[in-house]
Input
Amino acid sequence: MDNGIIKSINTLLAEEFEVDPAQITPDAELKTTLDLDSLDYIDLVALTESNFDCKVKPEDFNQIITFADLYAYIEEHSKKKELI
Output
């Protein structure tokens, strides 16, 4: 896992959702930690797509529960984007 991606994600989410960066750990749940409602999920997808240059499919995002899941998704899909 690329520590640069993790740091970028954590910084972005801490600022955008106004949470203590110490709360953002790989095993923490996105919904609980960021206090997400359905509109916040849309914001999270938009942030992910615009900041990490990867397309997030709605059906994929339903499988992203923890921050570790998000890190892995972004790392995997950003690499695919770079190879195209």
Notes: The chain is about 65% helix and 0% strand. Residues 3-83 form a domain with the Non-ribosomal Peptide Synthetase Peptidyl Carrier Protein; Chain A fold (CATH 1.10.1200.10). The longest helix spans residues 67-83. The two ends are 21 Å apart (CA to CA).
